[in-house]
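Support request, please re-run this one:
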Amino acid sequence: MIIQLQKNAPIRTGAVLFEVVLALVLFSFAAIVIANSFSSSLKSVERMRHDLDAANLAISTLSEIELGLKPIETSPPTEFEAPFEKWTWQIETTKPNEDLNMGGGLTLVEVIVLNEELGRETRIARMMRSPSGMQMTTD
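Re-run finished. Output below.
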């Protein structure tokens, strides 16, 4: 096969190869950007899931205290049961000063849920009446 070149026609040797290489570079760049954003999204979802687990565990522990299943007293860190054995809970109680007492018998109960492996800590606090400070009402 004989290729005839016209005298006035520009020489395009390598132009197609350059276009293909440029297209591959642009495609690779776009793929890397998309992969990084997808990875970042997955990490964010995982972080939010751990935060939700911690908040749910803290609220559940505080609810157990309100129901009288756990005493209103300061406790050392204690592991949760499976499947949350990597999480620990702890209760800290504080008697409020006279300005915040509002009728007596109130205790500031703070539940601390901690996962040292993930570096996550969640704290939820509520003012509660101690069982000895509760008054029973009859109908």
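The longest helix spans residues 15-66. The CA atoms of residues 46 and 99 lie 42 Å apart.
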